[in-house]
Amino acid sequence: MSKIQFHIGLITISLVSACKTAAPPKQTVAETQPLLEVGKEQFSIDDYQDSYNKNKFASDSTKELTPEEYLPIYTDLKIKVLQAKSEGKDTTLDYREEIFSYRDQLAKNHLVDKDLVEKLTNEAYNRLKQEVRASHILVGVSEDASPADTLEAYRATIGLRGRLEEGSDFADMAARFSKDPAAKTTKGDLGYFTAFQTLYPIETAAYTLPVGKISQPVRTKGGYHLIKVNDRRNNRGMVRVAHIMVKVDTAGTAAQKESAKARIDEAYTQLQNGAEWNLVVDKYSDDRESRKNGGLLPLFGTGQMVSEIEESAFALTRPQSYSQPVLTMYGWHIIRLIEKRPIETLANMAPSLRKKVVTDSRGKVIEQANAKRLREKYAVQEAADQWQQVAALADSTLRTGKWDYQRAVSADWSTVTLFRIEQRPYDALSFLNYVKRKQTPRPKDASPAVVFRRFYNDYLNESLVEYEKEHLEETNPEFRSLMSEIREGVLFSQIMEEQVWQRSLSDSTGQRAFYEKNKARYNYPERAFATIVAAKDTQTLSSLKKTLATSPYKLERKSKELLFPLNSAEIGNQQLEALNDLYIIMEKNADYVVEIAGYRSADEPETISSTRARNVVKYLNARNIPILRIIEKDYGSFRQSAEPERNRRVAFQFYSQSKSDVEKVYNAEVPGAVTIREGYFPKTDPAFSGFKWQAGEQMINSNGSFLWANVAKIDPPRPKTFPEARGTVINDYQKELEKQWVAKLQEKFPVKVNAQELEKIKR
């Protein structure tokens, strides 16, 4: 039995009653009668209706309870909560800490302007439909600069804009005047971008300006920007590619760079001649991570990948087609298109967009709107004279982040009130400690007075948020109802854990006695012990049957071979990389067994192939892969390869004791291609639909899938032993304990139901 689930919902009930009489009209309010009394507690029909609306599917998610059917469940909950309170469980430290944790978490959701978040989410999605190419010029000035410095930067920006409007070239002006470190190279070009890929003010300017136009000064933390929109296009969506990468050291010699180019050209030629992509990746790619998966890279969109790879990927139109070699700062690449996906629907993207909206630079818009709302909601009284006293403490150490008010003055700031929120005073000492705690180094042009005032505004806004948080139950009926439900839920969970759940699990004597008394309940029906396999085609099904015929099962999965120099069995750096991949596979798959096969050239010593295999075994043993999971074989000079260097190898073949591993390997390339089930099946199991109820092998075609069953035996019905029935016994015993306990509680907390109020529920 699981612990109580907390259902969060918004229930708004408006009760308006009025009667018409002679003028002037008078409003009458009928006295509310309780629906029921439990012990000395009374519960109204509204409280019951609220609980019912949230939990009417609690007992069976497929069947909605009627309001009358829910009444005993509701009463049962209230009785248990009252018992928990009578035992003082609502006064313990653990209870208070748990409630505080829930409250803190839930309060965050009620302190955000949900309408504004939704508005910004929709705005972001509409922007994501387009990609904008823009350029910018930055006139640097920090957000904490003095008013004079800020005004000077603004005027300089206006001056630059005037020159641009008169015909000066934007790229030339960016290279000459922009404080963006990359401007001399990029000439201010930001490339194509979409929502969330640049600062929100720059993004907004880019999405609202016509192509070719230049913005008014746009303020960010770094200064003032002039934005020019160069182009717009529809969002190209997301693309997934695989790549082959040959690293190029930018500081390398000309010979090294030529060698890298020759290597990527060789890989490209092999692909052109029909070589399998994965084999070429395995042989040439220097990207160790992607090489394990055929060079596969994560999905990406505009602005999320190196531009050369991005443009090459989006230029490909046919899945599995590949590009010519492409040079990036990392080296040479061949890009293979796997798939393209259009932008997702708003319904699918909304949850992740809401998170981004709150956490990216537009989150500042939400903070500012919330601060404005709270200043209008609560009475705030600021003490200008006291602020002037405190403001005098600002000095140049605020720029270095080493400011300390105690060095400046020894006054008792705890007696100075900076401001009041609804008459609650907030003293200067708390603010000064806030500054000391929050300070960080600032730009050289930061004004100590501006920094100090910013800290004050932040402290006041954060104090308003905390005040709102403390008084949520008073101002927010939804939050008040939810917290009441959570408090009851925690008490219910604690009392049930103590009286029912833990007792039923730990009382083995009681479990056995309950089983003996109710043996007739616990029986196995007639069952077949079988393996049932489903595949999309007969070829795959035949391959699966062959694989499952012998245990351990041979898997269609291999690891990279180790190649050794002539007459060498030593494991060096080249071999260690492949061995590490082998170790990771064995570590992640506990049922795997690996065959380690050593080979040699005909002109090498006879013992060298076995030594190569033995050294690999030693490596795995040293990394805690037991010998029982290793099959060691020495093939000597047999099975000679057409590629001479491969004759000096150690090869790996994986096996597994688990049919689920076989299923995973078959589904690795095509998810859901096969399913394998093994165990006992009753006659009523849908998996047996279409099969004959008899031992032996059978194959059928059902709804386009090919199914094979191997029924080892059919067991007749029989009673379950106690170990076999224990899980069900515990569940039933739990219900019995709860039933007995509730009967005692009903004597302690008698229930009285108001028949007239109950009739209202029935209607």
Automatic annotation (TrEMBL):
Annotated GO CC locations: membrane
Record keywords, A-Z = Isomerase, Membrane, Rotamase
Record's superkingdom? Bacteria
Which region is the signal sequence?
none
Domain OmpA-like stretches: 551-658
SUPFAM superfamilies reported for this sequence: FKBP-like, OmpA-like
Q: Which GO terms describe its molecular function?
A: peptidyl-prolyl cis-trans isomerase activity
Q: Where is the PpiC domain?
A: 129-231, 236-339
Among Pfam families, the record links this protein to: Rotamase
What PROSITE patterns does UniProt report for this protein, alphabetically?
A: OMPA_2, PPIC_PPIASE_2, PROKAR_LIPOPROTEIN
Q: What is this protein called?
A: Peptidyl-prolyl cis-trans isomerase SurA
Q: What is the lineage of its organism?
A: Bacteria, Pseudomonadati, Bacteroidota, Cytophagia, Cytophagales
